[in-house]
Write a structure and sequence with these properties.
single chain; 84 residues; alpha+beta; two-stranded antiparallel ribbon; 4 strands; globular; (rape) hypothetical protein
Length: 84
C-alpha cells in the first residue's frame, strides 16, 4: 500500500495485492507507462525487474514528477543514472 499526498491536498492510495509477485515482461506497454507518467509521485521498488524500474524512471523523468527509490540492495548504474 502506498499513500501519497497530492499538491492540492488530496490523498492518493494505491493498493495492488501481490503486485511484486506478478510476472513482469521486459517491456511495459503504452497503457502501463501512461499510468506512470500521470502519477503525482512514483516509488521505484527494487523487488521487481531492473528493466521495469528503468522504464518507470525514464517515464517519470520525462514527466518531471518526484521519484522515491526504495533502497534495499545494490543499485545498477543504469538505474542510478536517473538520480545522478
Amino acid at each position: 500500500m502506498e499513500e501519497m499526498l497530492q499538491l492540492n491536498g488530496q490523498k492518493s492510495i494505491i493498493i495492488v495485492s501481490g503486485a511484486n509477485m506478478r510476472w513482469w515482461s521486459e517491456r511495459m506497454i503504452h497503457d502501463e507507462l501512461q499510468i506512470v507518467r500521470n502519477a503525482g509521485v512514483v516509488q521505484i521498488q527494487r523487488e521487481i525487474s531492473d528493466s521495469i524500474d528503468i522504464q518507470d524512471a525514464k517515464a517519470v523523468k520525462r514527466a518531471l514528477d518526484p521519484v522515491i527509490l526504495t533502497w534495499e540492495e545494490w543499485i545498477p548504474q543504469s538505474l542510478m543514472s536517473y538520480w545522478i
